[in-house]
Amino acid sequence: MTIVALEKVTLFGSRREEDTLLTGLQQLGIMHLVTLRESPGEEAAPAAPAHTRRALQYLLDCPVRRHQVPEDPDFDLATTVERVLENQRRSRELEDSREFVQRRLDDLAPWGDFRLPPEDALAGYRLWFYEVPNYRRHQLGTLTLPWQEVHRDNRNSYVAVIAREEPPPEALPVPRTHTGSIPRSQLRERLQRLAVRLDELAAEREALTRWIHLIHRQLFRAEDDADLARAHHCTLDDDALFAVQGWVPIRDRAAVHDFAAARDLAVLVEPADADSRPPTLLDNDEATAGGEEVVHFYQLPGYRSWDPSRVIFFSFAVFFAMILADAGYAAVLGGIVLAAAPRLGASRRGRRLRNLGLALATTAGVYGVLAGSYFGWQPPPGSLPGVLRVLDTGDFGQMMTLSVGVGLAHLVLANAIVAWRRRGHTAALAPVGWIAALLAGAALYLGLPGAGIVLAAGLAAVAVFSDTRPIHNAGDLLRRAAGGLLGLARVTNAFGDVLSYLRLFALGLASASLAVTFNQLAADAAAAYPGLGVLLEVLILAAGHALNFALAVLSGVVHGLRLNVIEFYNWGISDEGYPFRPFARTEKTLWNN
């Protein structure tokens, strides 16, 4: 749970060997390049054409894949991509056509399979078709034109009217229906031909999947070439020499020196000074690195800040558990994660998310047991699950106290970490003051003696040490006083942030209440309809709990992350950084990515 220490490295070499040296540096893959030019110069080519990525994704989405071809000297990327995209285009067109034909068949079903007579067969008369709602059928009694009902169902009467011209709108209660001139028999034949053609395209797509490996490899190669071209635009050149600069982890210093010594390069190593702004590289153990993925997704801390990944990992698990609030749902979530584990284990990010998912399911399971909720069912008091139940989600006072207490602990932890990082400086007393104020505020609510004094002392520390600039004149004193007042203005933020954690109670209560409600509805249905009621009970339980599970998981993810990346970040992280992106080759096989 650290931000990796970096140093600035500048390499100097012969201009004639620039291409070779940059290629070697790319293979080394440990430097985040920094441009040495005042203007970046000519923009490098895009990493890969968008249509190539679309073609690859289309093949990856194919449900059945062929054996991969590792090498083929006759493979042509442009031709293959063109074939794939043409297959995609034709498949979409035929899918649209099939949907249209099927819709026409459904629309014409009440009219039967008929063919319109030629225009001269009825002496200039034509057929006009109307779908008249049954409750308005009586209005046809005033129609003077000849008409005939050809079909009726529980909603509409299907009427054919004979007239030379389309009857005026006021003659019938509804606008006419456009049936078209193609009979249903021909539409069925067309639908069959479309199905055959779609099967052929699906087989062609499946055959094209044999090239996924080669397309993927050449796509990476194109990205590597584009990165290399961009690296050339970051160097500083003259007639004889070139220089390339970037940030390198201190732990990789030996690798840089070995690289330079093997190629007769001059090396200049500079520490990160106060005026520099290095990128942020996080380093976490894989077991809890799922929190790092959350940090990358939302906001990276600055280089001189601290890594909140592990705190977010565990606090997210706790918040998610309090919102899910059911051991049965936690077991279902755990089963889903375990079922997806082999696929998630194929990539580093997938393994991290798998570990995060297992942590969420485990924590939610423990909390569900403590809350005594198993798909909304509560165990009897004398049973083992009943003995393990120590929380009552229906006890508003208990659950609100728990939620606020968790929120206080979360915000106190954020301020404690900030104070620790500022240790040895008077600025550390401001977060210490907030810790005292937060705890004293809770104690004051509980009526504990002496809480008011601690609250006043904490806010005084906030006012005095929120701005720690030296005082040399009256202007400095005024600015420092203004900074203290601005610090005190966060009192309302602190109050609102603590209350924001009440969402844990509210969402957990909603999840538990819905589970109990669906159980009661199912039991009532079973009792009201003997025999059939059992089927209704099963359907209500399955549909109700599936819906409640989906809502609870969604709420747990959204609000569990929100409390971390808004409330916690608001107190613990003040500097935003940008990611460390090593200049490295990405060419690899799809299966190792």
Written account of the structure:
The protein is extended and about 105 Å long. It has five domains: 2-39 and 233-279, Alpha-Beta Plaits (2-Layer Sandwich); 44-108 and 184-232, no CATH class; 117-179; 286-394 and 501-572, no CATH class; 398-486. With 593 residues, the protein is of the alpha+beta class. It starts with a strand and ends in a 21-residue tail after the last helix. Strands 2, 3, 7, 8 and 9 form a five-stranded antiparallel β-sheet that branches. A hairpin with a 3-residue loop joins strand 7 (236-237) and strand 8. It has helices spanning 18-28, 50-60, 77-108, 184-208, 212-232, 253-262, 290-298, 309-324, 327-344, 348-371, 384-388, 396-421, 429-446, 451-465, 474-488, 491-500, 502-528, 532-572, and strands at residues 2-3, 6-14, 32-34, 126-133, 147-152, 156-163, 236-237, 241-249, 266-271, 282-283. The chain crosses the membrane at residues 311-341, 353-376, 396-420, 432-465, 502-522, 534-554.
Evaluate the radius of gyration.
Answer: 35 Å
Q: State the domain count.
A: 5
* Content-based structural category: alpha+beta
N-to-C CA distance: 24 Å
Query: Low-confidence stretches at least 5 residues in length (pLDDT < 50)?
Result: 589-593
Strand content is 5-15%
What percent of residues adopt helix (DSSP H or I)?
A: 55-70%
Total count of helical runs of at least 4 residues: 18
Q: Tell me the total number of β-strands.
A: 10
Give, in order, the helices and strands.
EEHEHHEEEHHEEHEEHHHHHHHHHHHH
Q: How many strands, which pairing sense, and closed or not: the largest β-sheet? A: 5 strands, antiparallel
Shape: extended
The pLDDT mean sits at 90
